[in-house]
What we know:
The structure holds 2 protein chains of 2 kinds. Chain A is α/β, with parallel strands linked by helices. Helix content of chain A is 38%, strand content 24%. Chain A contains 9 helices and 13 strands. In chain A, a hairpin with a 4-residue loop joins strand 1 (97-100) and strand 2. In chain A, helix 1 crosses helix 4 (43-75) and helix 7 crosses helix 8 (224-232). Chain A is flat. Chain A starts with a helix and ends with a strand. Chain B has one domain. In chain B, strands 1-2 form a two-stranded antiparallel sheet. Chain B is globular, with a radius of gyration of 13 Å.
Amino acid sequence: MARTTEEIKQQMTDAFLASSTLRNAYGIAEGTAWSTAFSAVSIENILLFVVAATIHVVERIFDQFKIDVDEKVENAIVASVPWYHAKALEYQHGDQLVLNPDTYGYGYAEVDETKQVVKYCAVRDKGTSVQVLVSGDNGGSPVAFDASVMTPFTAYMDKIKLAGVVLNCASYASDHVKITANITVDAMVINDDGTLVSDGTTKPVEDAIRGYLKGILYGGTFNKTKLVDAIQAVEGVEDVELTLVEVRADSEANYTTLTGNNYVGVSGSYVADNLSTTLTYN
Amino acid sequence: MKATVKNGQSLADFAVEHFGSWTALIDIALMNAIPMSEIPQSGTELELPEQHYDVLMEQYCKRQGVSPATEDSTMASTNGIFTIQFTQQFA
């Protein structure tokens, strides 16, 4: 960031007045201010201003040079997984792409954030193809797109992608997680129906589970240990015993028992099912 | 916003007239894709940056109609400190 002319000149005058040789040559007492020692139109003041102004211009030129180089680097970026992720989020529903003749890449003539409907995106390199999962947003949770968005979005991704790359764009409703657990609670804090003793309505364990699932990075992994940690962090919870965790994609009718510690959903996001009947408090 | 360059105005003159500060010339040159040392033709329209550099001086220059033109050889007098050729002589 370029310094201002005033900042540069101040450094120069400070250095000037700090030099005993220069002070002696001019007969200036130590501690004298620059404006007291030299007139605003003195040759010394003007020369220092000219040099400071020149340095300021040079620093501004270097700032602009850096901006130009950054822009070139950004335009020349290899189509990596983060690049596809960023490009998917830049999709503007209803706008046409324009070819940039300098970069041979496509982009929008004007960025309009109000048309950027993709709020969640996960990109997975599948080896022979690249999977792009996207969702919109509804009250802070991912919501699947229908064909009215996915058709133009897929056309957009096909246009901007690196030639020859196979893209698989999809948007699914959240995966379902059914958690069966025995939760030992402090009876003075949490009732045996899971509500708080203090208000009789809030269910802090269910809120914690939903909060954990909502907090998983879109496209991330559901982890049993982290789920238990989230439940145990609730005030009044003394112990947690996960007896069964079942999962299913939204398109599947039946649950599958999760035997390992982790589950990577097909949709990129997760919701909890039937918490009011699968959690037992004692 | 655009403004017209007057006869004999350097970019620094133009910057002082419209912004009260010579430093605006850097952004003016950048926005209009011209060198900072350019002396634009009289009547050239230049794009102006949407910012302020020195509000007090900008208001002063506008109020007083300050319109420097250091390359205008037809001017009968100058408000500068030195003569056109930089010597120990004051104007």
